[in-house]
Structures are given as C-alpha cells and as structure tokens.
C-alpha cells in the first residue's frame, strides 16, 4: 500500500525528480517543493504520513526548527531529513528536533523507500553508523569537536575579529581604518588576511559565512583599540 507523503525542498528539480520516482513506485505525493521557510506550514496543512524535508546545511543552527514545529502541531507526521553526508552534530540535531530519520541526498530510490516505510512504522530510519554517531553526540556533546563558528573564530586574532565585525557591519576600508585608528593600507591588509583565513573571496562572503556559522555571536562585544597602528 502506497504512503501518503510530501517532498519539501528548496531545490525544485531535485524535489520533483524524487517525487516522480516515488509516484512510479505507487506512493501518493502531495507536494513536490517549497522554500524552507514555508515547509512547516505546508506540512501542517496537508498532514501527510511521511514528509521528506530537504536541507543543504544540517549543522546550521536553527535549520531543524521546521521539524520541531511539525512534530509539535502534527506529531503523527513522520519527518525524514533529506540532506548531504552529515557530521555527528547535524544528525544529532535532526533527531533532537524530532526527526524519524536521515536519508542522504545520494541514496538510491530503494533506500529512500525503505526509510519511508520504516518511518511510517515508527522505526528509526537511518544507517546504523549514523545513528551511533548521533547517540554519541547527544550523550557526550563535550567530547565532540567545537562547532564551525568556534573553529573559524579560533583562526583569527582579536584585531582580525574586530575587522570581521566591522566588515559585517558594512564598513568600507576607510571607515575600518578610522574606527580602529590605523592606516587604510593596514586595514586593507587585515581584511585580506581575514578573507584568506576564512577561505572566501569577498567581504560579502565573509560576512555571510560569519553570520551563518554564528561566529559573530561568539565574537561578543568588540574591543575598540584607540591606539594607532602604522
């Protein structure tokens, strides 16, 4: 008997391809795509048996908030996260939010279907090695490496952190130099070092990466050094 399900993903082509494959296998697909921001509302309204919820960044803070809301308002809906190869922190976060399982984007359709059937039956639908990593993360969070934001923050000097915060605030080289009491050429050098250490090619990318990983929140209040630097 087919499962009444939804495929919700930002990438419409991928979602529709998966939905079509599942339809051919006898399942009833209620919807094929939706932006992540509207995923929870759509699932709550349509109330499928199983929802395949796509994500490209399973370790990003707050990424599984839609799962939390779905399980709160429609606890009978089994949510399967569909994403890339996760790290233990990402898979743990999915289960902590209430997901019934995690399916890799590159999984064969047979594997996706097995996960769907397990989720509908109330079983954990995840590869054993991923499940083991998830339990380890939940039970021993301190034993896991620091998150991405903390890792990036540890690569920067205090002065480079201040530069990054100012870049994220939209300050250009002239304003950075004036605010820090340094020469514009020195400010430009600091910016280039920050970009190099973060592995990005532009100030906009640096600001986006810092915001996405929570680096700016971890940086805290920036100490303003009034002293000039040549």
Automatic annotation (TrEMBL):
Residues 4-120 form the Response regulatory domain. Keywords: DNA-binding, Transcription, Transcription regulation. The keyword DNA-binding applies. InterPro entries: CheY-like_superfamily, Sig_transdc_resp-reg_C-effctor, Sig_transdc_resp-reg_receiver, Tscrpt_reg_LuxR_C. It comes from the Bacteria. Pfam families: GerE, Response_reg. Signal peptide: none annotated. Residues 149-214 form the HTH luxR-type domain. This is LuxR C-terminal-related transcriptional regulator.
